[in-house]
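seq:
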Amino acid sequence: MNNLIAQIWRMALIIVTGIVLASCLGDDGSAPPASEGSATIGAAGGTVQGPDGVQLVVPPGALADNVTIRIARSSAGAPSLSDIAPKGAPAVYEVTPHGQAFAVPVQLNFPVTGTGDYLAYAAEAGGSWSTVPATVTNGTASISRDSLSWFAVLDPQGIFGCYPSIPYSCSYAIIKSATLDAPAGATAPRNYGVTAVVKPATMTITLNIVAPSPCATGAVLNVYQTQYAPGQNMSTNAPVYFRRPVLTGAAVSLPNVVSQEEVGGTYPFSFNFDATNDGGNHFDFEFACHNKVLDRVATAMAAFSVEIPATSSAPVITQQPANVAVAVGSSATFTVQATALHTLSVDWQRSDNNGITFNSLGVTTPAYTLSSASLADNGALFRAHLCDVGTQQTCVDSANATLTVTAATVAPSFTLQPGDLSIVTGQTASFTVSATGTPAPAISWEVAAAGTTAFAAVTGEAACAPTAAPGAGTQTSSTCTIAQTPVANSGQRYRAVAGNAVAASGVASNFATLNIAAASTAPSITQAPSAQTTTVGGSATFSVSVSGTSPISYAWQISTDNGQTWTPIAGAIASSYTTPAVAAVDDGTQYRAVVSNGAGTVTSAAAILHVNTTCTGANGTGWCNTGVAASYLRNVAFGSNTLGLATSYSGALMRTTDAGVTWSPVSTAFTGVGAIPEFYDIAFADANTAIIVGGEAISSTDKIWRSIDGGITWSEVYSSPSGSYYLSEVRFGDANIGLVAAGQSFLRTADGGATWTTVNHGQTFTNGVATYTYSVRSIAFPNSGTILASTSINNYSGTAEMLRSTDGGLTWSPIGSLAGYSQYLWRLSFVNANVGVGVIGAGGSTPPMLGRTTDGGQTWSVLQVGTTVGTFFDSVHMNSDGTGVAVDETGEIARTADAGATWQWVNSGTTKPLYGVASPSSGVYVVVGDQVILRNVQSGVGP
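struct:
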């Protein structure tokens, strides 16, 4: 009402003012107010005074030459304002020359009354009206422009009429009422307009909407549903089950004209209540209309409690898991489909005792995939345990599906090659080989003249007949014994050929040379045994190479008193000797070989055995300290079961060829490094190709180095622009495709790290003021066709996002986030395509945290490991067998045996900071840190 009175007074004031002006002008015969004004303005700038107090201020430098500028009160040629201002068009001012450009923006000033939200509009010749930002100060609305056109200034409070029935501006739409059509079976309304529904039914809610006339078309209605716990509603402040849209963008037509300036109508909204809606339900109705001046939104609310008796109904399985048959090494996928009245939960289970007992696999998706089947998986049963989770929980098991694993057909390969023989004429010579294949191969023998490769089948030697393939297994052994050994045959070459259904033409072994002498030659040591290092409970192998006339015999000896006395080792009569499990007292023991034939005897030099005794458990169990003392080792990676590299932030590079038992520094200079480099991360593309990302402090550039000989020599393959430190983590999916986290983008290679190109992921975050690009934190390759990357925006809560690529890292799309937690994930490591773990770098006042996903990275849960405050994990590594190890900067190690679902702390034996972890083979873990490298051969188990 106050608004209506104000407008009446305003109109009266306008009328009175008009009468006074007309009277004054009419009585003295003076001219009406000027309708235009002009001035010539040059490079020095100036002011043009127009009609009605409109003013144009041209600053110095805006014009290069003199220009006559005219301001006229004229709408001739301008677009119509009727659709923007239905109450009547305001004054339009034409400022010419049209399209005149200014080097510096000019300012147009319009006299206004009040300090409200005035709207300025501009229209170019041949164009339409568009809004221009206006600033109101001391009765003047000012706009800034760099060209001339038509202009108008509107008061929003005056462009719409007011409805007598609405106590506020009629430019807002309202929903006058929302009435219910109570369904059959509903009780009378209770407090707060709540209605009880005792069985599934459809309820219709009718909305009575009134809006300004410009909203007659183009209006939409959105409806949102909030559901509370059974027996609760919004009046009880009960916890919310969920909130969801049930109607989005529905067109609303308002054909009824309520008055000249408003339209209205009714809109029925129907909703089907069933058992899934058991509990309090709250509906928000949002009506939105749009016009060229303002967007107006009106809301109304209604609440209804739905009380339907809970039903107990097991899920209905629409597709049972099917039996699967695969070859060894292939993946096997089992799928189930089912429906549930409430919420469906899935838990995949496995039985290895023909269905007597089943164990959970921790997979809750409709499909379960065994990534690499082995013969041990043959006959395993798989089923899905399905539950309907509602007010009650009812479960059912699917049918059992059987996995059949068959041995893959494999071409033959030799596991034992024939060796050169030296004999005396008249002696027999025997060559022995072993070959494997699926099916097991047959073996034949061939011979070639000395110095040639023209091999042909061996003839005239009964003991060199072909060996038939065995009926079972995958291995075949064969021996060829040469009885005809005159000196003239010396130098002949013998080889074996193994063939099966995969390689019908056969696969040849290495050839061995038969040397025949007139008399025996005494043996000679060509390679003495070398020193070996192992841990308590481990073993070591010593080998010797000799030359001389066959047959040659070997006898290994041991000394426990620094070589003063030697004792023969029973049964050690081959060219190599492997010790049994060693104890701490075996450290310093020496070994040597005594080699003899009919012509003489020779003894090798002694080799020493080093036994590392710093293990956390007895007999070499638990975590063992390798004794390496390189400073600030941050990362470790393995290219094979034995070859590995460890890098330091201070420029150290360590190399192992025995799966981390011993390490040696790599002293090769890095190409292009002007000072000690800083190594950030390392990864292998294949067994010999390694990539290091790092930087140079002096040149302030980041680098990528590449080695193709297992880390011995390196070359620089990438250098970032000067001053940009941003490379952090490097990962490879295969021998070709690799990615580097490069700040707000990726570096990508498709040729094993030889060349790199930049890939922008395109994901941004806006905080209402500025737009930021997500920074890449970590990269993972869960399977051959998928790449995941964790990203974040620093200092913005809830902005950690997970990106996924399915085209080798060329394009990316967001798939999820670490819900409810603002920290980002890094050092991502996956058990399989679905289950993965990442480090949450929290620290501060929180215990160590890990993030875990079971759906391929789309959703993540936060795991708190322990209660020690102020520490955090630095790295985590998961193996396909479900074991994993996480390390932190206080020297602590946590271990999992159930794919990351639960974790236990184990004794690491050190308090030095630990930063990196890797696994060269199943059961073996290697951890690096500051001045320490630890190793465990029991899947991370502590004492």
